[in-house]
Specification:
single chain, alpha/beta, DHBP synthase, Rossmann fold, 8 helices, binds threonylcarbamoyladenylate, binds magnesium ion
Length: 318
């Protein structure tokens, strides 16, 4: 069983030390418990995906204690200022353009040019985020496919020893996740309903917001509205056994294949956690129009390899 501690100065200090060391800490928010990691540390973010056992890299929400902590992460706009003033701290997440050199691992936003950000109101979350003074990536603290956890016991049952510490503060008040609002589209669009309602958003904005209907297959989202997948601009070739002179090569493990105009290695040691942490940054780096393609070495289909291969298949499909 993971360590479960109630909230006090000692447990907050312990949580801060673990987070700064790249470990995972579950913490209470007003919506559901979150599984937190240092968002600036790619390997810590990779550990979140491994702990949840998700076969895909879904982008994660970045949590901070106050609005000015977002200034070096996202580009503010008028609607974001308005919603932030009205609903933060609270159960709302905003999708905004990511600042190019934002100190957040590309894995946390699954390679996207946007970032999901939130300021939770729960006093324990506030205390932790202030004390750690780092942006914290945190999905709901449940194993993939399981219900979102609203008690520390749910977290322990779902994640077990995959989490290093659970900060316990009883039942989550709101009990449903935050409302995810995309502010990078022409009209503010609710991507996931949650603790702040459409009516509340519209009252503050003074006009309609759109709601993205994920179930409506007959009307695919307009391009760009849900740019939920990052893909390089040049072709991607998977399971490469050879590399041509005009291709870039992305290796994994010992470098046995020669050739290529440029080369990077996801993990010389063949460590899937390290490979996940490097994946998006290295794809970006090799995505140059002068290269014919990115050839990618085979990645074992185990552990985080499932999510890496899922993402590579999407990147290769065009
Ligand atoms: O209440 C909550 O939001 C909780 C607590 C812990 O804060 N967190 C949570 O995280 O529910 P998660 O990872 O389970 O859900 C994040 C949602 C997903 O639907 C994801 O697709 C969306 O936010 N999301 C994250 N980044 C995004 C982005 N850049 N663009 C579009 N959607 C994004
Ligand atoms: Mg979730």
């Amino acid at each position: 069983m993971p360590l479960i501690l109630s909230i006090n100065d000692a447990s907050i200090s312990r949580a801060v030390a673990l987070l700064r060391a790249g470990r995972l800490v579950a913490f209470p928010t007003e919506t559901v418990y979150g599984l937190g990691a240092d968002a600036t540390n790619g390997q810590a973010v990779a550990a979140i995906y491994a702990a949840k056992g998700r076969p895909t890299f879904n982008p994660l929400i970045i949590h901070v204690a106050e609005t000015h902590a977002l200034d070096n992460l996202i580009e503010w706009n008028d609607t974001a200022r308005l919603f932030a003033a009205a609903f933060w701290p609270g159960p709302m997440t905003l999708i905004l353009p990511r600042i190019a050199d934002a100190p957040v691992s590309l894995l946390a936003s699954a390679g996207l040019e946007t970032l999901a950000v939130r300021i939770p109101s729960h006093p324990a979350a506030q205390e932790l985020l202030r004390a750690v003074a780092l942006p914290i990536a945190a999905p709901s603290a449940n194993a993939s496919g399981k219900l979102s956890p609203t008690t520390p016991e749910h977290v322990a049952e779902s994640l077990g020893d995959a989490v290093d510490l659970i900060l316990a503060a009883g039942r989550s008040q709101v009990g449903v996740e935050s409302t995810v609002v995309n502010l990078t589209s022409a009209i503010p669009t609710i991507l996931r309903p949650g603790g702040v309602t459409q009516e509340q958003l519209e009252r503050v904005l003074g006009r309609k917001v759109a709601v993205f209907e994920a179930s409506d297959d007959s009307a695919p989202p307009s391009p760009g509205m849900l740019s939920s997948h990052y893909a390089p601009h040049i072709p991607v070739r998977l399971n490469a056994e050879t590399v041509s002179d005009n291709e870039a090569f992305l290796a994994f493990g010992p470098d046995l294949i020669k050739g290529g105009v440029a080369r990077l290695n996801l993990s010389v040691q063949g460590d899937l956690n390290e490979a996940a942490a490097n994946l998006f940054a290295m794809l970006h780096e090799l995505d140059k129009p002068t290269y014919a393609a990115i050839a990618i070495a085979p990645i074992p289909q185990i552990g985080l390899g499932l999510a890496i291969n899922d993402r590579l298949r999407r990147a290769a499909w065009r």
